[in-house]
Amino acid sequence: MLLLTLLSSALLMVVVVTSAQPVKQPNILLIFPDQWRFDWAGSVWNLDALRTPNFDAVVANGTVFTRAYVASPLCAPSRSCLAGGREYDQAGVPSNFGNDYPVQQTTFYKLLRDKAGYHVMTCGKDDLTKKSQPGLNGSYHAEELGFSDYLRSSGKMDVVNSKEPHEPFGAFLQENNLWDVHKAEWHGPDGDCQWKSYVCNKSSPLPDFAYEDNWIARNAMTLLSRKPANKPWYLQVNIAGPHPPFSITQNMSKTVRGREFPTAVDHTTLTHEQQQILRQDYAAEIENIDGWIGELLALVEKSGDMDNTLVCIASDHGEMLGDHDDWGKSQPWQGSASVPFTCMGKKVGVKVGQRITRPVSTMDMAATFLDYAGTEPDTGMTTTTLRPILEGKAMSNREFVSSGLGKWRAVVQYVNNSEIYKLICCNGTCAGQPRNATHSPSPNERVRRMFTFSSSRLGDCSAYPPNMVPQDCRVSLRDEEEMLVGAKPGKNHTTVLLYNLFDDPSELNNLAQDNTYKGVVNRMLPLMPPHTCLVSKI
């Protein structure tokens, strides 16, 4: 695994070479892990216990966005918003398993391939065919989505949802006589630990070479090794981690034990020791990914492409990690909806050492990549380029950014250097909302009132303690459309919450209950997508 010392040569030319003009049609590398929360990004948030030298080096040699939001904090909807360059309400994928990405609606991948002439590659968990899954060879809808070459696979939970392998990673495990070993990790005697709890101090039985994140990263290197010469390329590396369960190999476990990490905010359910176990495991996943960031960038440098490559690192959504006694994602809170986001490429034009504190949407990577490729978004796309910000020519590209899922919508708006407001509207009660919010349920009711315990696609979810049910397990397939997408509000019940993220990043002080901020709420309510919030003013 290559760390900062091995990455330094790859970054050296980016630092010292001067460029008179940005290159035309740069290569684009997007490293896109799953469920990486915004403030677990090493040096960006001064989290010294987390060791991410390669991510930090990209930050130092480029531009970092400290308030980056996803268009929807759930795997398939978020990735579909990026692919389609559309907001949640226009992207066509409202939930994880309701439907696949509508291939009749173009993607920015297809525009890069068919209009800009790029060789477009993807590997890992893209979740654009999450309902149907990518198929045993990963080819399902791959060409229609816009990919020239691919090594697609499913995410952690989807891999083991069948008796026999149904997608490439499972097939890889079976070829190496590890399928039954991995199945037993989830469904065997240790299944309650690895799958039914965020706190598990048992290591994965898989050897390092068979760990899914490592396998995906090696596939990325394979794609780079077989790309055609003399053609601009795009590669998206969809790493499965640090999505739970936080199952790590024995070697990964050795690197994190004994370290102390900040504990959850507004939390009542786990002991300090339990919180440290799950945080150490989460850190091990992130640090392993960081090592592969170094490997990938070193390979790009070795191939001679570094000077001509735009590198971006982001995630599809965050992870609550117990904040407000909530777990997983799917909620409007910072831990769920905000992610790390940084880009570098000095010869491409990206400003070095720039820190952007105004809100941005990761969905706008679609327009940004198209901009650098020399083509435009398709009709109906709402994505807006970040290129002027990356090149130091603008501070923002939107008046506000939006996020949403099912029955809630949120907008974040910069006002000045001491006022950055997030307005949340939930038709009904906001699941997992802080205890200070109006209509806030008790901790046990936060899960029991909003979701139904039932058999999920992966076993019996009812074994979870009420306050530790991951979002993925809260909704059965039968109830998903009603509970997540078409959730019916309580009679005359709409929850409106307002937070000033500048001085309240943990969202502990709901300003909507203060008449002083009534004007702010009423000014921001019209920014909500049409027909999504049942109140227009308070």
Describe what this molecule looks like in 3D.
The protein has 538 residues and is α/β, with parallel strands linked by helices. It has 2 domains: 4-363 and 386-399, Alkaline Phosphatase, subunit A (3-Layer(aba) Sandwich), CATH 3.40.720.10; 404-527, no CATH class. It has 20 helices and 17 strands. It has helices at residues 4-16, 53-60, 75-84, 88-91, 108-114, 142-145, 156-159, 168-175, 179-187, 191-194, 212-226, 250-254, 272-302, 334-337, 365-373, 387-390, 443-448, 471-474, 477-485, 518-524, and strands at 27-31, 62-65, 68-69, 119-124, 149-152, 233-238, 309-313, 338-339, 342-344, 354-356, 360-361, 401-405, 408-416, 419-426, 455-456, 459-460, 495-500. The strands form 4 sheets. An 8-stranded mixed sheet has the order 5-4-6-1-7-9-2-10, with helices on both faces. Strand 12 and strand 13 form a beta hairpin. Helix 1 (4-16) packs parallel to helix 2 (53-60). It is globular, with a radius of gyration of 22 Å. Mean pLDDT is 87; it is low at 1-20 and 439-491.
Instruction: Give the termini distance in whole angstroms.
Output: 55 Å
Please list the strands of the largest sheet in the order they lie side by side.
5-4-6-1-7-9-2-10
User: How many whole angstroms does the radius of gyration measure?
Assistant: 22 Å
CATH class call of the largest domain: Alpha Beta
Beta strand count: 17
Number of DSSP helices?
20
How much of the sequence is in beta strands?
A: 5-15%
CATH architecture label name of the largest domain: 3-Layer(aba) Sandwich
Q: Which regions have little confidence, pLDDT < 50, spanning 5+ residues?
A: 1-20, 439-491
CATH overall fold name of the largest domain: Alkaline Phosphatase, subunit A
Q: Domain count, please report it.
A: 2
